[in-house]
Please model this.
Amino acid sequence: MATESATNGTSAGADTMSAAERLMAQHAEEEAHQASVEEVPDEEFTEHPPPSGAASLPISTDPSRVATPSGEPGMSAKAAGKQPMREQPQQPAAPSKPAIDTQSEDAFPALGGPKSQPAAAAPTPWSRKPAAVGKAANGMSNGMANGNTAPSNKSSRASTPLSGIVTPSSTAPSQRGPTPQMNLPGRYSEQIQLHPSMMTPRNQLKKPVNDILRDVNKRSKANVEMKAGPGGVVVFEGTGPVDAVRVALKEVATQLCSKQNISVPVPASIRGKIVGKQGATIQAISKKTGARINISKQEAAEILEDDDMDTMVDVTIEGDPFAVQMARQDIEKIVNEHTASVNTRLKNIPAEYYPFMNANSRVNALREGRDLKMQIPHYHSWNQQAPPQTPMDRKPATFTPQAGLPIQLSGDRQAVAEARAELERQAEQLQRQITLEQMAIERGRHQFIVGDLGTSLNDFLQETGCSVILPPDNDDSEMLTIVGPPERIEEGMNKIMDLASSMSMASADIAKQHANAPRGAQAHARDITRYLQQRQGIEELERMHNARIVPDSTGAWQIYARDGKNAMKARSDIMNLISGHPPTRFQPVEVDPFFHEHLREQHAHQIRDQHGVRVIVPAEGDDSPVLLVFEDRAASPEYQLPRRQPSAQDAQAFQQALEQAQKEILNLISGREEIVSREVDAPVKFHDKIRRHVDRHHQALPEGAIPLQVLYGGPHQPQQQRRQQTPNVNLRGPQNEVDALMQSMLAFIEQEKQDELERGFTLSFDFPQKFANHLIGRKGENINRLREEFDVDIQLNEGKCEIKGPEAKANACKKHILDMAKKLEDEATHHLNIPAQFHRDLIGAQGSQVNRLQDRYGVRVNFPRTRQAAEDDTLEAADTTAGAHRNAQLPHEVIIKGPGKGADACRDELLSLLQYVKDNSFTATVSVAQNQLPSLIGSGGKEMESMRLETGAQIDVPGSREAASPTGRAEIRIKGSKKAVEEAKKLIEEKAKVFDNTVTRNLDIDKRHHRLIIGAQGTNLRSIITEAGGPDDTRLHNRMIRFPKTEADGNSIRIEGQKSIVDKICASIQALVDEQESQTNDIAEVKPDKHRLLIGRGGETRRQLEQQFGVSINVPRQSESGPQRSQVRISGQPSNVEKAKAHILEMTKDMEGETVSVPRRFHHSIADNGQFFRRLRNDHKVTVDHAGQRPPPKPSTPTPSRANGDSMPLITDDPAANANSHSWEMHDLHSAEEGDIPWVLAGPSQEAIASARAKLDRALEEAGKQDTMGFLILPDPRAYRHVIGPGGSEINRVRKQTGTKIQVPRDQSKGEAIEIAGAKAGVEDARDIILEIVQNNA
Model:
């Protein structure tokens, strides 16, 4: 501790001294002054200096340290805040120094030899106001070790390093005193004071004290001097630089002080925090203080399920007093930081006291205004442990605590300790006060006394001062237990009788309902009871009628209810239910119990789904047969228990389904070997190992195989008789499988007996301490697995691994452990900083991505947990690394651990995947109307899929539940690359904008106008939409305008789209309808033979007329007869109809005409496929009619054929040889028909008819001349060009000379003929001239 500051007062002549002179005088006064203990202010009540001026020791810079204690002797602000408040005496204005009493134990605790100490006070647990730990784990008082007196716990929180060692004083600048001091650089001074009893005797030192000091001073920049202090205390004062002074003083204390050994008890749950990650924390403390620190070895692999404040372990500290005290302070600092709160369980209080404690006001007051949670279980029904026997004369009863029903306490340690003490005091008081009594009440009335259907236990306790304990539901006992004070037991029993007698009861004999059952009424009653109990039908009836039903296998059911009406309703419902389950619904099947479990687990659900039959498999130890009950072929959860008598047809269906189910079960068990039982002698101590051996055997069975039944300690017995197992194992199953397992088991037992003889073999080898946590595993799971796998005992202690067991198994286990260490040596760990928003994509659906990486590279990839289990905060030492690592993992930290090569590759791939995710993790949201979602998704999702393919973005549309919003809007999430997100967002926003501007109108238009609005093949509808500015895509037209499909839909036309477009469409439709309704109809009489004039080719003339006059023209069909045959209907506006009618009558009026008889054989030659008729109509407005006669059939067109059948000459042939080898054919152009056909020429005037007649006469004359067609095929295709001549001169000359028509083929290489048409003589002359031309040019 710092020495007292120099007195502020100075002499009168001080003002004349210089600053240096005043400073030297002050130093001289300080050196002359000998500080005493009373003059040193207690550091606990003083203000500490800043860190730069505080004493410090080397601190580990290991980055893996979880919590490295500070080297300062003072506590942290948090720990200091936890110190108890002490009254600080008032300082007088001019304090006088009291005389020093060196014999005072209060002033100098433990300075002298060991003195007798009074009995230690009750231990106070670690809490937010820490006190001393009262009891070590080894039973010794805190501070006592190796028989030596250690400092009392009272001083363990004091600021002095150790009793007998005065805290170093300092002349460094400090704010601790009332007057600031000044010190020259390099003149820092600090002292330690040691009692001679704490120092090594001089005759045991390697060197004299002065030599030790001289050597220390030589090695250090500081100077250490020894002085005599008050009371025999030896003072060592160091002067020099701060760090050098402290190192030198520590070295002096190390060499001069005797070794000390103390044990500090700490809560076992904090052991891992003291050890630190791979021992980093405890090693740092040891390195800093120079003390050797050990933790109890027997706690190395112990796993603590609870933070129990009674469970303590010893931390042993060994070293010089200075080092021991500093290490102790650091350890206690860690304990203080982690033991502010605690969880504990009280298992030593009988559960029968719980109701009284819950009702106690003092216990409830403990919770108020404190950090304390107390959970006292509600206890009104015993489960495993029945209440004790009734004592004689109602003396206090002795109750046994139930470890399975503890009281839970959590919160501040001090509050927990006080609550625990109060509960234990209450338990002691209740033990002296309460007794119990038992009384028999009908089983069905129990739940109406205390429980959901009865009064609450608290109300019963308040009224009677007693509690009630009921038997469990699976116990047939009728005995109730009343617990309370002897004088109030009668009151409690009377209350129970009142509650029980207020119940109404009814009976239902279900056996009488089906008295003629084939297997007997009693057997059928048992079947129904089994079925309803397994089907939970009885519980359903109880809930429906607020009653209690007690079934009986004989068929006599008891019904209890608080309301008599409910009891009668329940009885009526039961009888209806029994009526709906006749014997025809049930079928027992004898099945060996060996198949029961397999049938229940593997086939019962399948039979229910396929046949509608429920399979009731008896429980273990029940000799009843398997029961088949037909329910329904409907799904099981939807099935309702029937309540009416089935018909004969239904009963037949029941039997058919039951027979099918029975056949399937019998097929399952048929053809198997005989089921046998075998008993194997096996010592009880081997049963656990045999069980694991059998489990491995069963795991190796093929899929679908039925495992054997194995019972340990004899055949199946009731639970009460299994307490003492017999040294045997029973096997049951098919004979071959039983024999095989029996042989394997006998060999295994024999090997175990042999191994027992070698259990003393011990193998010890080095194992890296840094991998100890990997070997132990979380809660010891790894080391326990190895112990079971190799059947050896494994102990791990400070880098040494000891294996005890059979030699072969020990060596195998050693090899496994060393291989694991070798693998861990190659292990690499990478810490990646990955933002948490990308974790989900990197992990993948159900971990698919991360599992793929782990399997590919053989590494472990740990993403941070979103939730940390509360129990992860309390880990024992073996699991400290893993636990602390998980707790310390940052939200954005991803850890890859595994073989170096695999870890590197996994890291690279994970970072590549991260980059891809980042590039494709741009997101956006678009708000759309909820009712727009169906149109965005489209039929079968086509529209949405189209947008995804078009943009390449991921588009997530909310479901119906997510989209539900009072605002009527839904958020569509878009994710992908930046470009894809922008395109998708733009596309959806455009659709949303269109939809938001969309309006819907309904027009009531009579259906007779719908066809007109649509038009032929939708032409009118398309025109209306496009003219209004609608889309050109015809797929969208049906969505914009919807016509009613059926009569039930009415006449309403639904129009949906943007407001401007919808308005225009509505106006167009309305105008069209108005125009249609204002139209008139008129009839024009037109002869049927004139209808073709109105229709035209393909209806062209009619369309032109309709478009020209804006009317609709309906020409009668040819199938019509009577007056309607000549009536042409004209519809439209009156003025347009009038104009159209006049025009039609003008077109079809009877025109002047002339009839010309044309020979039938010339008809087609003149008509020229109708070309002649069109020329007359176009040139002269004259039409041709045949007066109703049918034109002659068109003759076949003549075609050439080679006369000699020879093939075409080759280009290599001699032209002279082929000069006369041409082909010539002549055919008659006209048909052979006789007679004439009339041609009626009709025209607008006589002149037109005369002109048409003149053309017809010329055509007749020409046809008479053109009566022959000749085909000339030249032998050499090259000669055709000579027939044509330059510029067609030759062919034209021949035509003019002979008066024929000559056609030379274009593709002359194919051997086509030259066509010559005309008079027979002219045709022959043309042939000759052509052949002459060819001959001349050969």
User: Anything to note?
Assistant: The longest strand covers residues 260-267. The radius of gyration is 58 Å.
